[in-house]
Amino acid sequence: MSRATFRERVRYWFDNTMSRGTAALIGWLALISLGLILLVTLLSLWLTPAEAEKNHGAMGMMWVALMRTLSPGKIASDTGSAPFVALMFVASLGGIFIVSALVGVLSNGLKDRFEQLRKGKSRIIETGHIVILGWSEQVFTIVTELVQAHASDRGSVISILADKDKLAMEDEIRQHVGDTGRTKLVCRTGRPTEPANLKLMNLDEARSVVVLSPQGDDPDAHVIKTLLALVKRSGDHPPVVAAIAATANMAAARLAGGPDVHLVDSDDTASRLIVQSSRQSGMSVVCMDLLNFADGEIYLRSDPDLVGMTYGEALPAYQTATVIGLRRACGVMLNPPMSTVISPSDEIIVIAHDDSLIHLAAGTPGAEESSIVSAEHVKPGAERTLVLNWNSRGRQIVRYLDGYVAPGSVLDIASDHPDAAIGFEGLTNLTVNAKDCDTSDRYALESLGLALYQHVIVLSDDRYSADHADTRTLMILLQLRDMQTTLGERYSIVSEMHDENNRSLAEVTQADDIVISDTVIGLLLAQLAENQHLAEVFGYLFDSHGSEIYPRPANRYVRPGAPVSFASVIEAARRRGETAIGYRLADRVNEAPHFGVVLNPSKSRPLRLGEADSVIVLAER
Fold first, then answer.
1. Distances (CA, A) of 230 to 132, 201, 262, 392
2. Separation CA 263–CA 230 (nearest Å)
3. What is the mean pLDDT of residues 518-532?
4. Over the stretch 285-306, which tens digit does the pLDDT of each residue have?
5. Distance between CA 393 and CA 268 in Å, rounded?
6. Smallest Cα–Cα separation from 348: which of 326, 333, 316?
7. Considering the entire predicted model, what is its pTM?
8. What angle do CA 353, 355, 361 make, to 5 degrees?
9. pLDDT-derived band of residue 445, with 50, 70 and 90 as boundaries?
10. What is the mean pLDDT of the chain?
11. Where are the bilayer-spanning segments (predicted)?
């Protein structure tokens, strides 16, 4: 290779100085200005000595040249010999170039600086704040819930770090969330996987960290890399909650985040909720009421007054809170045996509208014995279930459903998805059949013979975008609703959707339950960001082992139409080894936002439950 020439070396040096930014450009303009002033001064001293003498010699001429360079308009007042005027004209022309270039350089430099300031690159100095890393549709649910949770707190702060424009993030949150009240929102632009960007969030002083699973291809890789960046950083490590989209990546995420990270398996949680909702109408509504901060919340409380009592005796202990279980050193127990004695180290798990409302009742409310009904729980026999559409969590749903149904049950899958007919080995209770079907075609739906089924599950087709998939789901729900009305058929319908806004549109279909999977995950992340100990409670609720939430016919607990207190309902459930936590009114199942569900009602307020109403209980299958 030939050696660099002198010209190439000069050009290389010049390019390097120019790349140093605004300061280097201003420096070059200053040098050009100095050169022009010296040249005009020297020429004036040589060619126009008389004018130079009038202007006090060399220093005076340098000042005159400087003024012409910085203010080219001064040439209009120049008088003297032709060479003098010509030199001033040259200085003014050079000044026009220099001043124009300087204005442009300063303008671009200021613009770049404002852009940097606009992105929010300063370090956050808040303390006790909640940090959200990443961006997805779930961020709006999380921020909304955290704002509600801290509505009465002064100085609460939510900070967000995402690879997105700062002002764009703030505008979108204002649009979706609205007024954040006393909660301060701080956004920063940066990549959560970069240690330098994490330093902006003052994680040492943070209360908790939420890592979101971003939209796009392979979102779990981004989450796992973020967890690695959090583990490797020095300083204090606040509690971390993260959402993992695919169950297969949970092991890698646990290894990356360490034992102190609480992971939410999005696929697993949504699959369990879809299955449970298909079995028990209203399940998703109950879970969403428990997960959001606007309604009944779950609290852990140590209460010495209940020590020595059995769990069954403690059920009616609180007037405005509902006991649902115990937390011990060995783990969480929801609806434990009624004879379980409460020890001093136990924490009582209760549902309450606010922690300030958890206080013991003045007296134990009496149960109306004449209104309590003793009826054995009837286990369902073999059933037929139809799944319309398919997605990546379909096989997980099938396997969970296999654990709920009685032997001999049948599951038919109707979809034109290429993956809908494979991977169903090892099932115990279910026989699975796959049918190729265009579920958007009304005639294809009618040919399925829906009257044969007790349950219909409509999944979101993952071959389409979230919005398009929700639109197709709405069309199917409308068709099913019309077929039920026209043919007089009755089967429960549970559908999966992505966007909470589409739920209001789907209300016209009167589906028995609609699971908004993204919203449920967002609510769960917000709860765990506030209290990591609730991870055990919600994990227990969504597990198929142990006690689960069941809306069961009210006529199995109390006489239909009889005026009773909820204390009587609690007693009726207690005698069956169950924990009553609320009820659902059949005539309000289509009324948003609670769809007839009432959790944690007053123990003494009278109510009438009809034949079609349900009592919501924690019970074994």
1. 13, 12, 13, 29
2. 14
3. 88
4. 888 888 888 777 889 989 899 9
5. 8
6. 326
7. 0.78
8. 85
9. very high
10. 84
11. 21-47, 84-110
